[in-house]
Specification:
The complex is a heterodimer of chains A (about 110) and B (about 160).
Chain A lengths: L9 E6 L5 E6 L17 E3 L2 E6 L4 E7 L5 E8 L8 E6 L3 H18 L1
Parallel strand pairs in A: 5-7
Antiparallel strand pairs in A: 1-2, 3-4, 4-5
Chain B lengths: L1 H6 L4 E8 L11 E6 L5 E7 L8 E6 L5 E5 L5 E6 L5 E5 L14 E8 L3 E8 L12 E6 L5 E5 L2
Parallel strand pairs in B: 1-3, 2-4, 3-5, 4-10, 5-11, 6-10, 7-11
Antiparallel strand pairs in B: 6-9, 8-9
Classes of the chains: A alpha+beta (about 110), B mainly beta (about 160).
Chain lengths: ~110, ~160
């Protein structure tokens, strides 16, 4: 049973390099008071999680950015129709642009060799 | 290169439940999601909460040298495109049947405008899909990878 809290409620489970299981609960702030202890606050990184909640623009960004690490994330997102903007989620892992570029080169080479 | 590929494998699994209590068809996306990994398995599903009417989702799932499996439920409406290189791109529709919550009686249909081995795109939703859409009011799912299969599954 999912309990919807405030604007969004993210329960995140990430598996990091060493297979260490890390569980965080993120509840973005809804106003300037009663900020939950679990609030990651603006621009703060925690286990690769970046939470950004811009009150003025009424936007919520949830970013999970890791490098070369498997991610398992169970996420519940909420978006109120009265808001001006969508709720945005980013989940990235992998090995960055350098190896991606190498892979693109490899694909080109592979096609050329057919 | 293959040694690197074997060593660096970053599976990404994201199970996402969404809730947007729209009372009318939304005029903007409710959710924008970008998922990316490299040389791993990218698996994600976006499912509406039972209390949620259809929400507009704009989803982009990108991989390289790894498969992508995306599942959307029978409340998704919008355009889709799946593409890969030197592998298979496929789109499937399940038999879960849901009538249009906004205009009851419209049948749910899937139109495939292009269906090739490596690329497929089209539209899924209620009605005939021939209406002129405002792109901002339209759901969208884009999936891309290379040298591995990509699969988009609609539950209905």
């Amino acid at each position: 049973m999912i309990r919807w809290l405030h604007r969004a409620h993210l329960t995140l489970t990430t598996t990091v390099h060493t297979s260490q299981q890390v569980t965080d609960r993120y509840i973005p702030r809804t106003n300037h008071r009663d900020v939950p202890r679990q609030d990651l606050s603006r621009h703060q990184y925690h286990h690769g999680v970046r939470a950004f909640d811009d009150i003025r623009l009424n936007r919520i960004y949830l970013s999970i950015l890791l490098i070369d690490s498997p991610i398992v994330a169970n996420i519940s997102l909420y978006n109120n129709p009265s808001w001006k903007h969508p709720t945005t989620l980013e989940v990235h892992t992998g090995n960055g642009c350098v190896l991606a570029s190498i892979s693109s080169f490899y694909v080109a080479f592979d096609i050329a060799s057919v | 290169m293959w040694l690197l590929t074997l060593l660096l494998c970053s599976n990404l699994t994201a199970n996402v439940t969404i809730l947007a209590p729209n009372e009318d068809p939304p005029l903007r996306p409710n959710f924008v999601a970008n998922l990316r990994t490299f040389s791993g398995v990218l698996t994600t599903n976006f499912l509406h909460d039972p209390a949620s009417p259809p929400a507009i989702i704009q989803l982009r799932a990108v991989n390289d040298l790894g498969p992508v499996n995306v599942t959307l439920d029978s409340l998704f409406e919008g355009i889709f495109q799946v593409s890969t290189k030197q592998a298979t791109a496929s789109v499937t529709q399940g038999n879960a049947s849901v009538t249009d919550p906004w205009v009851p009686g419209l049948p749910r249909t899937m139109q495939t405008d292009l269906n090739s081995t490596e690329r497929s795109y089209g539209w899924i939703g209620w009605g005939d899909g021939g209406t002129l859409w405002n792109a901002y009011e339209l759901g969208e799912v884009l999936i891309d990878s290379s040298l591995a299969a990509v699969t988009l599954s609609f539950l209905g």
